[in-house]
Amino acid sequence: MRGNRFLRRSAACVGLVALAGLLRAAEPAPAPRPAGAAATLAPLGRETYLLPPKEIADAVLASRGEIVALTNLSPDGRKFLIAKRDPLPSVERLGAPCVHLAEMAFDPVACRSRELWVGSAEALDLFFPAERRTVPVRVPSGARIASPAWSPDGSKLAFFALFPDATHICVADTETGACRKVTQTPVLATLVTAFQWSPDGKRIHTVLLPDGGKRPVPKPGIATEPKVRIARDGKDPSRTYRYLLESPYQMQLLEHLLTGQVAIVGVEDGAVTPIGEPAMVRSVSASPNEKQFRVATVKKPFSYYAPFQRFGSQESIWNVSGKVLVTLSDRNLRETETPPVVTPATTPTQPPFPKGGLTKGARGTGGTQPVPDPTQPAPTPPVNPMNPDDAPTVAPEPFDPDAKRDLSWRPDGKGMSFLQLEPAAKDAKKDDTKKDDAKAVRKDRVMQWLPPFGKDDAKVVYESPNRIVGAQYSADGHWLFISQTVDAQRQITAIDLANTKTTYVISRGGSDFAAPKKDEPPAKKDGDSDNEDADTEQPGAGRGGATVGLGLLARPLGAVNVVRVSIAGTVYLSGTERARGAGEGAFPKPYIDAVTIKTGKKTRVFEGKADVLETVDGVDGDDVKYVFTTRQKSNVVPNSYVTDIATGKATKLTDNVEKSAWFHELKTERFRATRADGIKFWVKVTRAPKAEGKLPALFWIYPREYADQADYDAKAGRGGTGTGPGATAGRYTGPAPRSVAILTLAGYAVVEPDVPIVGPAGRMNDNYVPDLRNGLWAAIDECDKRGIIDRDRLACGGHSYGAFSTANALAHTPFFKAGIAGDGCYNRTLTSMSFQSERRQLWDARETYLEMSPLLRANQINGALLMYHGMEDANVGTHPMNSEALFAALDGLGKPAALYMYPYEGHGPIARETNLDMWARWLAWLDLYVKNTKAK
Question: What whole-number distance in Å separates Cα of residue 575 and Cα of residue 536?
Fold first, then answer.
């Protein structure tokens, strides 16, 4: 049962007849098929999943090799949870029942999120490092695992057991691995995809199916109504969504899949205590004393015009009977997206493509504006928050200086905590309030909000003349820790809640301040001046999951995180530092400092290594004796270590080995190429280590937009897009299943040029075609001069916007023998309200839209184009009909083309069978049309 599969292919061709007169280029003769093509094409036409050569298959599967990561440490610090996952999910798992509703994907049989099932684990192990003992969790037969969570004391492990037709909560004993199911009624896991332990570990808070799970699923019947749409008042431009709601039945089904019963489930006896009545629950969080619940629900009406993310919602505090004590927020349905601001257009003339290469000044074709006069002021850029290729988002609420911030439960069960500025002066005139607020210094406060959460139930816990960035408590609620800015420096302060006038500075300094020395003098109290010598220390940075935002080591307690405080009254400051004068090869070192709250004594108890990237994953308890870390480099596989802070000895806990050594032996070069118009950009080339001579090559592209050379240089980094300092931050990098570097194993060079599209703000795409053309020419020319590529044996490829650009490259240049294009949009008239970074609508930039639509230039495509597309691609603007329409055009024009539509896949294939099949077909296609062709 998979939704919305009945869109007619012919819809992709809307308007083609009317637009045919706009196609000015002469149609080239169909490319001849290479000798022996019939024999090679035969397997490419097989309707089954193919396998690539073993070396390629091994590389694809090893890219998701089993690297054991010891990062999920139990609260008692004794054991790690290791989740075992398939390197790539199977098509069978992807093919589980699924319905797409309002841009969300659900399993309507098991009543859960599709992603929960697709990303689930197949097994769980518990690893005890001190004993070097592994205990397998005895998961129920036929179940997969999701959302595992330790009990507060670490003695138990709960998880969702995902059966084909239901989801249940199981609890395992961590010493033996014995497991039992604690829910009799299935869990509703469509929106709430995790659960919560009670602080004492005796109960679990979750959302169950209502009516004991016996509600019948709404069934589609014979249609009793036509499909009706009436234009709304005003302008309501919207992106090209694929899976919006379409019928009353779908609305009924969505309500069914979202409606659940908030409940408390006893761990020992499975007893269920319902909280309130069934509702469409988005999220739920119980107070530590389990007397109140923070519940967010979905509001009706639903909409045919908006995705789920813009549906109405309400967040409230309930008591145990479900009575609403207070409403925290109430948002109505938002159907309208902010429209783009349109820059007026003019109609340009199109200069011809220059013969014999690309010339300076061959820019501006296909645009709606001529190249601007550099002596004139730049136009005001259009403003539009929409990005049609991003997931649906909701515009942020306007900033309210009086709003409650960082609302959360207090760990002691005494209501809620939040941050709020003190009220503005009551005698200020309303008209003067905004002016006064801009100048007046309003104190910032940490507030306590007690049940029943009325207007008069809040009281001040602590106030400061400085802006408070965050607040956190100790488990017993005795200590409050805040982060604030004092004299332009970040400061972490501890407040004794028994006497809030007594405060202690835990740490002071900006993002750059000196690393404390061992046993340095006590930290000063609030109000004392302190300006530590600057270096590069960052409390809270690079610390894995062991700390909270303040940079203090923390642990979960029910729905909140609490700061670890030892019996002796010590807290632990965690962060990273880089020694002054350290070379480029040096990594920031993690550290942990023990800080005695009342004396301020600070002692370095742990310091990591600087010759690898080391991150803190956890500690063994509130009185830290052992520190668990991960060490890695970009070419060194991660492994886990434990350091005894008493001796400083580090012991290796895992033996992960490199399974993609070939990837780190590749020869990689980065250099600049210069376009005909003078724009310089980076090109990355990857070859096998022993490759010699000029090689057949694949150019893998994804154009991006820039205002000018300086804008590109600032954003692209050293070495090109995504290759600047910090791009990988020293983390291990191996090949992904679709990494184009795998092609080097088949004798190809892989060229990844930045393709800058340069122009005035809001009108960069007026230059899309000439900049694409000029950029590819410059990259090819530079690679040829360096003796890297055989320019007569080239292919172009890309995914999504890169696929769109690949089709354009084949339509607007003569450089490539073949192309590989995945999940692309090839007809920009179907994304008429804007696309990618283009903010103008079709009617404001018609020539640009048409010039950038390769479907309208299908008669000019002169390379063999292989396309692939996920049949359930829900990405905005890349409906599979795009690939179907372009293939139909190429087939009708007699041009070499292939289209592979992959079942159950979205915007980017993830199944094992799909990835292997793609590589088998890619290689056969490239070998036929590129590698094994002879130069003219």
Answer: 10
Evaluated on CA atoms 130, 136, 139, 143, the torsion sign reads positive
The predicted-structure confidence for 560-617, as pLDDT tens digits, reads as follows 899 999 999 999 999 998 766 556 667 899 999 999 999 999 999 999 998 999 999 9
End-to-end CA separation in angstroms for the chain: 52
Question: Which of 30, 302, 5 has its CA nearest to residue 896?
Answer: 30
Yes or no: say if 679 and 756 are a contact pair by the CB < 8 Å rule.
yes
Domain 69-220+240-331 has CATH 2.130.10: yes
Report d(CA 365, CA 358) in Å as an integer.
13
Query: Considering Cα of 661, then 663, then 664, then 667, what sign does the dihedral take?
Result: positive
In the block, which residue shows the tokens 């809270």? 540
Going by the DSSP 8-state scheme, the letter that residue 93 receives in this structure is H
Q: What is the CA radius of gyration of the chain?
A: 30
**SS3 state at 195:** coil
Nearest to 697 by CA among 738, 737, 740: 740
In the chain, the amino acid numbered 371 is V
Question: DSSP alpha helices (H): ranges in 557-635?
Answer: none
Look up residue 569 and give its two tokens. Answer: 């009254």
% of the chain exceeding 90 in pLDDT? 71
Task: Quote the CA–CA distance of 366 and 384 in Å, as a whole number.
Answer: 22
Cα separation, 847 vs 347, in Å, equals 7
CA distances from 870 to 251, 313, 899, 907 (A): 25, 32, 11, 6
Tokens of 63: 């890219």
Closest CA to 922 of 742, 691, 753: 742
Report CA-CA distances (Å) from 599 to 206, 372, 486: 43, 66, 20
Helices (H), 388-465: 430-439
Q: How many CB atoms lie within 10 A of CB 562?
A: 25
Rounded to whole angstroms, the Cα distance separating 499 from 443 reads: 19
**CB atoms inside a 10 Å sphere around CB 714:** 12
Residues found in the chain: 936
Residue 66, pLDDT score: 78
Q: Is 739 left (phi over 0), alpha (psi -120 to 50) or beta?
A: beta
Cβ-based neighbour number of residue 163 at 10 Å: 16
Q: How far apart are CA 664 and CA 675, in angstroms?
A: 31
Domain positions in the chain are 34-60+660-931, 69-220+240-331, 405-423+441-652
**How would DSSP label each residue in 258-286?**
HEEEEEEEETTT--EEE-SS-EEEEEEEE
Rounded to whole angstroms, how far apart are CA atoms 216 and 168? 19
Query: How confident is the model over 851-865, as a mean pLDDT?
Result: 96
d(CA 366, CA 370): 10
Q: What tokens does 922 get?
A: 């890619």
| 324, HSE (Cβ side, Cα atoms, 13 Å) | 13
Pick the CATH number of 34-60+660-931 from 3.40.50.1820, 1.20.1250.20, 2.60.120.260, 3.30.360.10: 3.40.50.1820
The C-alpha atoms of residue 98 and residue 110 are separated, in whole angstroms, by 10
Helix (H) or strand (E) holding 709: helix 709-716
Put residue 182 in one of left, alpha, beta given phi > 0 → left and psi -120 to 50 → alpha: alpha
pLDDT at 96 (0 to 100): 96
Distance CA(797)–CA(631), nearest Å, equals 35
Q: 86 falls in which pLDDT band (50, 70, 90)?
A: confident
Q: What is the DSSP string of 200-253?
A: TSSEEEEEE-SGGGTPPPP---S--S-----PPSS-------SS---SHHHHHH
DSSP element (H, E) containing 41 = helix 37-44
Residue type, 263: A
Nearest to 389 by CA among 241, 235, 237: 241
Band of the pLDDT at 550, cuts 50, 70, 90?
Answer: low
